[in-house]
């Protein structure tokens, strides 16, 4: 990994951390703490990428971003906005200002360098890329979806990845409310953003099931430690355990790890495979997935828009027998959806070794979504053992499949930091 990067951040501590991480990753890095002098130095140094904070005295980061992108002496310079000011409106302004990437502070130190490195590698995708690899935003969105974590759990794989290493957590903003789907390690960063924003004191957490990858971040969810917060925890009971029984060891772990950590007011809601009106004008349908244990998928509907989240599910595909109607059931549920986030754990080559495990061959997921005319598909929960190159190839093959079959479906692979407005 190589390239020249300039960081512009008036916060010495944050700037030094970013510089150290990028330097350790092999980049040539320079830190500037005075934004007024930054443009001149950037012109002189001709870096490959610039990392900007938003809130800085002198010239703010978005203004500097626009100056860099409009400067003819700086063609092709990539810009990453790295800021704690990460509301949806700020991310939109960053994109409009020409930013190629937005990373929320506090960021994940394990993935920060690879996210920046993705800007300089044509094989990897940044969240704000405007090519066929990016999902199109709706012009008048109802839902704002954020991927906080999407990989499978691993006890050994620690190599940085442009797709991230955190386990499942997907955020959805709707009617001014925040919903989190699953609470893998991605929930830790999601919770920090919610805590730093100070805007949302009521959070809904929908758990698909209780396998470790989907709940291992729940004990460290920051809003649980805020006395003014209300956290609604929703999930399905098992045959022999209530939702409270399933949650008890996880929440007790929070207390053991951090003392009297849980200060929020908590409500528990047991879910079945039913339709609920969770807010006025917002319906949520939970359905049972094809995965070991009691596992749910979720549909959200509001103002004529429909999105789906089903992190663990095995599509039978061409192997389906006459008496297996799971694929047909899921196709009816997904029909015409604006966005589907669905399990795509294995490549076509590896899937035969894991058939029957409750996870899908990514090609089967593409075919199912395409056949029921899903508009946007995010392939989710890739195996942690796959390299970035293997996941790149998976994404390219999925996009080619959709094009060859004539599916009306945009397809991308999940990655931390991916956001889409629906």
Map the helices and strands.
Blueprint: E1 4-8, H1 12-24, E2 28-32, H2 38-45, E3 49-52, H3 61-70, E4 78-83, H4 88-96, E5 101-104, H5 112-119, E6 143-149, E7 169-174, E8 177-181, H6 186-197, E9 202-206, E10 230-235, H7 243-258, E11 265-270, E12 275-279, E13 282-288, E14 296-302, E15 305-310, H8 326-334, E16 339-343, H9 351-354, H10 362-371, E17 376-380, H11 388-405, E18 410-413, E19 419-421
Parallel strand pairs: 1-2, 1-3, 3-4, 4-5, 8-9, 9-10, 10-11, 15-16, 16-17, 17-18
Antiparallel strand pairs: 6-7, 6-19, 7-8, 12-13, 13-14, 14-15
Order of helices and strands: EHEHEHEHEHEEEHEEHEEEEEHEHHEHEE
Low-confidence parts: 122-133
CATH topology (level 3) name of the largest domain: Metallo-beta-lactamase, Chain A
CATH class of the largest domain: Alpha Beta
Shape: globular
* N- to C-terminal distance: 35 Å
- Number of helical elements: 11
CATH hierarchy: architecture of the largest domain: 4-Layer Sandwich
State the CATH superfamily name of the largest domain.
Ribonuclease Z/Hydroxyacylglutathione hydrolase-like
The major pleated sheet works out as: 7 strands, mixed
Q: Specify the oligomeric state.
A: single chain
Proportion in helices: 25-40%
Structural class: alpha/beta
Tell me what portion of residues adopts beta-strand conformation. 15-25%
Mean pLDDT: 88
- Roughly how many Å is the radius of gyration? 21 Å
Query: Widest sheet: strand order?
Result: 11-10-9-8-7-6-19
- Strand tally: 19
What is the domain tally?
2
């Amino acid at each position: 990994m190589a390239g020249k990067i300039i960081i512009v951040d008036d916060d010495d501590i944050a700037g030094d951390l970013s510089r150290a991480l990028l330097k350790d990753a092999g980049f040539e890095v320079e830190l500037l703490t005075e934004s007024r002098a930054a443009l001149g130095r950037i012109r002189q140094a001709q870096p490959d990428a610039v990392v900007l904070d938003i809130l800085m005295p002198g010239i703010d980061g978005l203004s500097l971003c626009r100056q860099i992108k409009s400067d003819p002496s700086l063609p092709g310079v990539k810009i990453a906005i790295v800021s704690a000011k990460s509301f949806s409106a700020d991310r939109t302004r960053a994109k409009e200002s020409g930013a190629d990437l937005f990373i929320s502070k506090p960021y994940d130190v394990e993935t920060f360098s690879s996210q920046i490195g993705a800007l300089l590698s044509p094989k990897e995708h940044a969240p704000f890329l405007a090519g066929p690899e990016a999902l199109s935003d709706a012009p008048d969105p109802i839902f704002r979806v954020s991927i906080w974590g999407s990989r499978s759990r691993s006890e050994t794989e620690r190599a940085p990845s442009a797709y991230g290493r955190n386990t499942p957590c997907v955020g959805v903003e709707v009617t001014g409310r925040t919903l989190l789907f699953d609470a893998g390690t991605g929930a830790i960063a999601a919770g920090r953003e919610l805590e730093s924003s100070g805007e949302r004191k009521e959070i809904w957490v929908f758990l698909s099931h209780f396998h470790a990858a989907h709940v291992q971040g729940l004990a460290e969810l920051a809003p649980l430690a805020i006395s003014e917060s209300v956290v609604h925890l929703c999930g399905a009971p098992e045959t022999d355990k209530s939702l409270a029984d399933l949650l008890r060891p996880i929440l007790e772990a929070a207390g053991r790890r951090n003392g009297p950590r849980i200060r929020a007011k908590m409500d528990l809601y047991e879910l079945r495979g039913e339709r609920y009106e969770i807010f006025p004008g917002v319906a949520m349908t939970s359905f049972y997935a094809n995965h070991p244990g009691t596992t749910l998928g979720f549909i959200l509907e509001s103002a004529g828009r429909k999105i789906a989240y089903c992190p663990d599910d095995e599509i039978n595909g061409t192997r389906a027998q006459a008496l297996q109607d799971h694929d047909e059931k899921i196709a009816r549920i997904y029909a015409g959806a604006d966005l589907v986030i669905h399990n795509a754990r294995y490549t076509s080559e590896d899937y035969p070794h894991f058939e029957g495990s409750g996870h899908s061959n990514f090609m089967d997921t593409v075919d199912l979504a395409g056949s029921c005319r899903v508009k946007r598909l995010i392939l989710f929960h890739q195996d942690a053992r796959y390299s970035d190159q293997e996941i790149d190839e998976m994404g390219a093959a999925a996009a080619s499949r959709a094009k060859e079959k004539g599916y009306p479906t945009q397809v991308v692979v999940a990655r931390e930091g991916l956001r889409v407005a629906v």
